[in-house]
Design a protein that fits this description.
By secondary structure, the protein is of the alpha+beta class. It folds into two domains: 1-93, Pseudouridine synthase (2-Layer Sandwich), CATH 3.30.2350.10; 96-203 and 211-236, 2-Layer Sandwich (Pseudouridine synthase). It is 18% helix and 31% strand. It contains four helices and twelve strands. The strands form two sheets. Strands 1, 2, 3, 4, 5, 9, 10, 11 and 12 form a nine-stranded mixed sheet that branches. The longest helix has 14 residues, at 221-234. It is globular, with a radius of gyration of 18 Å. One of its GO terms (biological process) is enzyme-directed rRNA pseudouridine synthesis. Its EC number is 5.4.99.-.
Protein backbone atom coordinates (compact mmCIF):
# COMPACT_ATOMS: atom_id res chain seq x y z
CA UNK A 1 0.00 0.00 0.00
CA UNK A 2 1.20 3.52 -0.82
CA UNK A 3 3.34 5.16 1.86
CA UNK A 4 0.86 8.03 2.25
CA UNK A 5 -1.63 5.63 3.79
CA UNK A 6 0.74 4.91 6.68
CA UNK A 7 0.08 8.26 8.37
CA UNK A 8 -3.70 7.99 7.95
CA UNK A 9 -4.50 7.32 11.59
CA UNK A 10 -7.89 6.60 13.15
CA UNK A 11 -8.68 9.09 15.93
CA UNK A 12 -12.15 7.76 16.83
CA UNK A 13 -14.21 4.79 15.67
CA UNK A 14 -17.51 3.05 16.39
CA UNK A 15 -19.85 0.86 14.36
CA UNK A 16 -21.33 3.83 12.46
CA UNK A 17 -18.41 6.06 11.55
CA UNK A 18 -14.79 6.94 12.17
CA UNK A 19 -12.72 10.10 12.38
CA UNK A 20 -9.23 10.06 10.90
CA UNK A 21 -6.19 12.28 10.93
CA UNK A 22 -5.78 13.08 7.24
CA UNK A 23 -2.19 13.91 6.36
CA UNK A 24 -1.29 16.90 4.23
CA UNK A 25 -0.74 15.85 0.62
CA UNK A 26 -3.45 13.16 0.50
CA UNK A 27 -6.63 13.84 -1.49
CA UNK A 28 -10.00 12.90 0.02
CA UNK A 29 -11.39 11.41 -3.19
CA UNK A 30 -10.33 11.17 -6.87
CA UNK A 31 -11.36 13.94 -9.26
CA UNK A 32 -12.62 11.38 -11.77
CA UNK A 33 -12.21 7.74 -12.83
CA UNK A 34 -8.84 8.49 -14.43
CA UNK A 35 -7.39 9.95 -11.21
CA UNK A 36 -5.38 7.14 -9.61
CA UNK A 37 -3.41 9.06 -6.99
CA UNK A 38 -3.69 7.79 -3.39
CA UNK A 39 -6.86 8.96 -1.63
CA UNK A 40 -8.77 8.71 1.62
CA UNK A 41 -11.58 6.86 -0.15
CA UNK A 42 -9.16 4.22 -1.46
CA UNK A 43 -7.80 3.77 2.07
CA UNK A 44 -11.34 3.59 3.52
CA UNK A 45 -12.60 0.92 1.11
CA UNK A 46 -9.37 -1.07 1.51
CA UNK A 47 -9.70 -1.00 5.30
CA UNK A 48 -13.52 -1.30 5.44
CA UNK A 49 -14.79 -2.97 2.22
CA UNK A 50 -18.41 -2.57 3.30
CA UNK A 51 -18.12 1.21 2.83
CA UNK A 52 -17.80 0.87 -0.96
CA UNK A 53 -21.57 1.35 -1.39
CA UNK A 54 -22.07 4.02 1.30
CA UNK A 55 -23.14 7.47 0.14
CA UNK A 56 -24.66 8.97 -3.00
CA UNK A 57 -21.64 8.95 -5.31
CA UNK A 58 -19.69 5.72 -6.03
CA UNK A 59 -16.58 7.84 -6.53
CA UNK A 60 -16.91 9.25 -2.98
CA UNK A 61 -17.88 6.35 -0.68
CA UNK A 62 -18.41 7.31 2.96
CA UNK A 63 -17.62 10.99 2.41
CA UNK A 64 -19.80 13.62 4.13
CA UNK A 65 -17.32 16.50 4.07
CA UNK A 66 -13.82 17.09 2.77
CA UNK A 67 -10.48 18.74 3.38
CA UNK A 68 -8.29 20.18 0.65
CA UNK A 69 -5.40 17.97 -0.42
CA UNK A 70 -2.77 20.04 1.41
CA UNK A 71 -4.90 20.54 4.56
CA UNK A 72 -4.25 18.13 7.43
CA UNK A 73 -6.46 17.11 10.32
CA UNK A 74 -9.76 15.65 11.44
CA UNK A 75 -12.08 14.12 8.85
CA UNK A 76 -15.34 12.21 9.44
CA UNK A 77 -15.94 9.05 7.37
CA UNK A 78 -19.14 7.01 7.49
CA UNK A 79 -19.42 3.22 7.54
CA UNK A 80 -23.17 2.86 6.93
CA UNK A 81 -25.79 4.56 4.78
CA UNK A 82 -27.72 5.52 7.90
CA UNK A 83 -24.68 7.28 9.33
CA UNK A 84 -24.02 8.96 5.98
CA UNK A 85 -27.52 10.46 5.94
CA UNK A 86 -27.27 11.41 9.63
CA UNK A 87 -24.02 13.35 9.20
CA UNK A 88 -25.14 14.85 5.91
CA UNK A 89 -28.06 16.38 7.79
CA UNK A 90 -25.82 17.56 10.67
CA UNK A 91 -23.65 19.46 8.20
CA UNK A 92 -26.69 20.86 6.38
CA UNK A 93 -28.18 22.14 9.64
CA UNK A 94 -24.75 23.42 10.82
CA UNK A 95 -24.77 21.24 13.93
CA UNK A 96 -21.10 20.29 13.61
CA UNK A 97 -18.60 22.74 15.05
CA UNK A 98 -15.26 22.83 13.20
CA UNK A 99 -12.07 24.62 14.14
CA UNK A 100 -8.80 25.04 12.26
CA UNK A 101 -5.33 26.36 12.95
CA UNK A 102 -4.05 28.67 10.21
CA UNK A 103 -0.65 30.35 9.96
CA UNK A 104 -1.06 33.48 7.87
CA UNK A 105 1.07 36.23 6.44
CA UNK A 106 0.76 39.60 8.13
CA UNK A 107 -1.54 40.59 10.95
CA UNK A 108 -5.34 40.97 10.76
CA UNK A 109 -6.71 44.43 11.49
CA UNK A 110 -8.73 42.96 14.37
CA UNK A 111 -7.53 40.26 16.79
CA UNK A 112 -11.00 38.66 16.61
CA UNK A 113 -13.60 39.09 13.92
CA UNK A 114 -16.19 37.46 11.67
CA UNK A 115 -15.61 37.61 7.92
CA UNK A 116 -19.01 37.88 6.25
CA UNK A 117 -18.33 37.83 2.52
CA UNK A 118 -20.20 35.73 -0.04
CA UNK A 119 -18.07 33.49 -2.22
CA UNK A 120 -18.34 33.06 -5.96
CA UNK A 121 -16.28 31.27 -8.57
CA UNK A 122 -14.28 32.67 -11.46
CA UNK A 123 -13.16 29.70 -13.52
CA UNK A 124 -11.61 27.24 -11.05
CA UNK A 125 -10.78 29.84 -8.39
CA UNK A 126 -13.01 31.04 -5.55
CA UNK A 127 -13.32 34.75 -4.90
CA UNK A 128 -15.04 37.28 -2.65
CA UNK A 129 -15.40 39.66 -5.59
CA UNK A 130 -19.06 39.51 -6.47
CA UNK A 131 -19.13 41.77 -9.52
CA UNK A 132 -18.52 40.73 -13.08
CA UNK A 133 -20.44 38.81 -15.72
CA UNK A 134 -18.36 35.64 -15.39
CA UNK A 135 -18.99 35.09 -11.67
CA UNK A 136 -20.64 31.74 -10.89
CA UNK A 137 -22.55 30.28 -7.91
CA UNK A 138 -22.41 33.15 -5.43
CA UNK A 139 -23.08 31.76 -1.92
CA UNK A 140 -23.23 33.07 1.64
CA UNK A 141 -20.03 32.43 3.61
CA UNK A 142 -19.16 33.20 7.25
CA UNK A 143 -15.80 32.65 8.93
CA UNK A 144 -14.93 33.53 12.54
CA UNK A 145 -11.30 33.85 13.61
CA UNK A 146 -9.25 34.76 16.68
CA UNK A 147 -5.55 35.42 17.12
CA UNK A 148 -3.55 32.81 19.04
CA UNK A 149 0.02 34.08 18.51
CA UNK A 150 1.64 37.12 16.92
CA UNK A 151 4.98 36.82 15.17
CA UNK A 152 7.04 39.42 13.33
CA UNK A 153 5.46 38.98 9.91
CA UNK A 154 3.05 36.13 10.60
CA UNK A 155 0.02 35.33 12.79
CA UNK A 156 -1.31 32.02 14.07
CA UNK A 157 -5.11 32.02 14.00
CA UNK A 158 -7.87 29.79 15.26
CA UNK A 159 -10.50 29.74 12.52
CA UNK A 160 -14.10 28.56 12.84
CA UNK A 161 -16.04 28.39 9.56
CA UNK A 162 -19.78 28.79 10.05
CA UNK A 163 -20.52 27.69 6.49
CA UNK A 164 -18.81 25.02 4.41
CA UNK A 165 -17.93 26.55 1.06
CA UNK A 166 -15.09 25.28 -1.10
CA UNK A 167 -11.80 27.00 -0.18
CA UNK A 168 -13.75 29.25 2.20
CA UNK A 169 -11.06 29.75 4.85
CA UNK A 170 -8.31 30.26 2.28
CA UNK A 171 -10.26 32.85 0.28
CA UNK A 172 -11.65 34.69 3.31
CA UNK A 173 -8.24 35.07 4.95
CA UNK A 174 -6.75 36.33 1.71
CA UNK A 175 -9.61 38.84 1.47
CA UNK A 176 -8.47 40.51 4.71
CA UNK A 177 -4.87 40.64 3.51
CA UNK A 178 -3.67 37.56 5.42
CA UNK A 179 -3.23 34.64 3.01
CA UNK A 180 -2.33 31.29 4.52
CA UNK A 181 1.37 30.41 4.39
CA UNK A 182 2.02 27.81 1.71
CA UNK A 183 -1.18 28.49 -0.26
CA UNK A 184 -0.11 28.22 -3.90
CA UNK A 185 -3.56 29.17 -5.24
CA UNK A 186 -4.57 32.15 -3.10
CA UNK A 187 -1.31 33.02 -1.36
CA UNK A 188 2.20 34.19 -2.15
CA UNK A 189 4.34 32.59 -4.90
CA UNK A 190 7.36 33.06 -2.62
CA UNK A 191 5.93 30.29 -0.39
CA UNK A 192 6.68 27.67 -3.04
CA UNK A 193 8.00 24.52 -1.40
CA UNK A 194 6.12 25.05 1.86
CA UNK A 195 3.13 22.96 2.90
CA UNK A 196 -0.25 24.64 3.33
CA UNK A 197 -0.31 25.70 7.00
CA UNK A 198 -3.97 24.85 7.59
CA UNK A 199 -4.90 22.11 10.07
CA UNK A 200 -8.38 20.91 11.08
CA UNK A 201 -7.79 20.56 14.82
CA UNK A 202 -11.26 20.34 16.45
CA UNK A 203 -14.64 18.74 15.80
CA UNK A 204 -17.68 18.87 18.09
CA UNK A 205 -20.93 17.05 17.34
CA UNK A 206 -23.49 14.54 18.57
CA UNK A 207 -22.86 11.02 17.24
CA UNK A 208 -25.65 8.84 15.80
CA UNK A 209 -25.84 6.96 19.12
CA UNK A 210 -26.54 10.22 20.98
CA UNK A 211 -23.05 10.61 22.45
CA UNK A 212 -21.64 14.15 22.52
CA UNK A 213 -18.13 14.16 21.12
CA UNK A 214 -15.40 16.77 21.21
CA UNK A 215 -12.27 15.70 19.33
CA UNK A 216 -9.04 17.65 19.24
CA UNK A 217 -5.87 16.92 17.29
CA UNK A 218 -2.45 18.54 17.55
CA UNK A 219 -0.84 19.78 14.32
CA UNK A 220 1.67 17.48 12.60
CA UNK A 221 5.38 17.72 13.33
CA UNK A 222 6.29 19.93 10.35
CA UNK A 223 3.60 22.43 11.32
CA UNK A 224 4.81 22.62 14.94
CA UNK A 225 8.46 22.86 13.92
CA UNK A 226 7.77 25.85 11.68
CA UNK A 227 5.88 27.59 14.49
CA UNK A 228 8.83 26.94 16.81
CA UNK A 229 11.18 28.54 14.26
CA UNK A 230 8.99 31.62 14.07
CA UNK A 231 8.92 31.83 17.87
CA UNK A 232 12.71 31.64 18.06
CA UNK A 233 13.15 34.32 15.37
CA UNK A 234 10.61 36.58 17.08
CA UNK A 235 12.33 36.27 20.45
CA UNK A 236 15.80 37.16 19.14
Amino acid sequence: MDKKYISTKIVYEDSNFLVINKPSGLIVHPKNKDDHQPSVTAWLVHRFPETATVGEDPERPGIVHRLDKETSGLLILTKTQEAFLYFKNLFKERHIQKSYLALVHGKPRYARDIIDSPLGRLGMKRTTRIVGKKLLDKKEALTEYSTLKDFDKFTLLEVRPKTGRTHQIRVHLRSIGCPIVGDMVYGKPSDKGLRLFLHANKLEFTAPDGKSLSLELDPPTDFNEYIEKLESWTNK
